[in-house]
Amino acid sequence: PDIYPGNCWAFKGSLGYLVVRLSMKIYPTAFTVEHIPKTLSPSGNISSAPRNFSVYGLDDEYQEEGKLLGQYVYDQGGEPLQMFPVMV
Predict the structure, then answer these.
(1) Counting CB atoms within 10 angstroms of each CB, which of 5, 36, 55, 82 has the fewest?
(2) What pTM value is reported for the model?
């Protein structure tokens, strides 16, 4: 509900994944990622922000390989909230 340090989905290490199960099939047109701005970071940097990430679409939770919807780069020097259009 806010953009303060610590109120986030965090994981250990440099790799992670997230699966979102929806109640119905959708055809997304874009994705957004938000990270705290440098000005709110206690250390003055946002090196913990995501950098390179990919988004895949699945028909169901048991599908092993999804359809690549896009590969993106979060710009740590850009706005805290960034939108990425579906590439495929």
Answers:
(1) 5
(2) 0.78
